[in-house]
Amino acid sequence: MSAAPHVQLNHTAVYARDRRRSAEFLAGILGLEVGAPFGPFLPVDLGNGVTLDYYEKRDEPVQSQHYAFLVPDERFDAMIARLEAAGVTYYADPPHTRPGRVNTLFGGRGAYFDDPDGHNMEIMTRPYVRP
Question: CA–CA separation, 14 vs 28, rounded Å?
Answer without folding.
Answer: 16
